[in-house]
Write a structure and sequence with these properties.
Blueprint lengths: L2 H4 L6 H6 L5 E3 L2 E4 L9 H11 L5 E10 L4 E8 L5 E5 L2 E5 L11 H10 L5 E4 L6 H9 L4 E6 L2 H13 L5 E5 L2 H4 L7 E6 L16 E14 L6 H11 L2 E15 L2 E13 L1
Parallel strand pairs: 2-3, 7-8, 7-10, 8-9, 10-11
Antiparallel strand pairs: 1-2, 3-4, 5-6, 11-13, 12-13
Helix pairs in contact: 4-5
């Protein structure tokens, strides 16, 4: 049963139309979107969530979209108080504070998919690594020789370091700083590079020149309208080509929604060579 169905006897049909059907749970924190028109119903919504999820310690109302260089949304506390929690996925644990860093439990399936593609001995680079979920899940579920994670947000790096220790991910190396400065300094090539920054990945494709071995893979994340979904793979190939990189799209999937008729997509590309 969805949140809307739980509230059907307490809210009008018009009010229910404005309410999102689902919400995200990270550890013992729930993140819910309550539009301004329904703020007066806030307590009713909170109680409906708690009735179904009794383990929750805090409920956050999202009041601003993910933005800025640190990709952090704005929230207000509508229940509880603490904003740090431990999220669990695929046998890994992640200490995280959604008000300070970006983390989405909705990407857990995608992280496991990527880990399942990693072959033994691969060298992997995770750009925009956040608190380390991609890097650590890969390190724990696969057998890479090394996973390097780069993150600019100092708060996220702090959690990343804690999470590496918490999960005993000895083959994960953390670099704090701007990918524009760090990637060019990294020696050697990678078998696989992840670009989980759907807002801005296009601006960093040029950094991949000379960094991916021939036949290696790049996982490119972006937002796109459903109306242009069929054209997306070719569009991304074109972005790489503009940056002097020949890469062939071998797989594409939706991995979350962003707005009505706009989704998050991942395009897996195989690195062919450079112009």
């Amino acid at each position: 049963m969805s949140l809307k169905e739980d509230l059907r006897e307490k809210m009008s049909e018009e009010e229910l139309k404005m309410l999102r059907r689902s919400f995200e749970i990270i550890g013992d924190i729930a993140i819910v979107e309550i539009p301004e028109e329904l703020v007066s119903k806030k307590e009713i919504i909170v109680q409906a969530i708690l009735q179904r999820h009794r383990h929750l310690k805090t409920i956050l109302r999202k009041v601003g979209e993910v933005n800025g260089i640190y990709r952090v949304a704005r929230y207000e506390i509508v229940y509880g108080g603490k904003t740090e929690t431990i999220a669990r996925e695929h046998g890994c644990r992640f200490i995280v504070d959604p008000t300070r860093v970006y983390y989405s439990s909705k990407l857990a399936t995608e992280r496991a998919r990527i880990a399942g593609l990693v072959k033994e001995g691969e060298r992997v680079l995770v750009m925009f690594a956040g608190v380390g979920p991609y890097a650590i899940v890969i390190a724990k579920l696969a057998k890479p020789s090394e996973v390097i994670g780069i993150e600019l947000n100092s708060a996220a790096v702090e959690y990343f370091r804690k999470n590496v220790k918490l999960n005993k991910a000895e083959n994960v190396r953390i670099y704090e700083g701007d990918v524009n400065e760090i990637v060019p300094r990294l020696e050697g090539e990678f078998d696989r590079i992840l670009m989980p920054a759907p807002y801005s990945a296009e601006n960093f494709v040029h950094l991949l020149r000379g960094k991916v071995r021939k036949g290696g893979f790049v996982h490119y994340y972006t937002f796109e309208s459903e109306n242009f979904e069929e054209l997306l793979a070719r569009k991304v190939e074109g972005i790489f080509l503009k940056n002097g990189i020949i890469a062939k799209a071998v797989f594409m999937r939706r991995c979350g929604s962003f707005a009505p008729y706009v989704n998050r997509y991942v395009v897996d590309l195989q690195y062919v060579g450079e112009l």
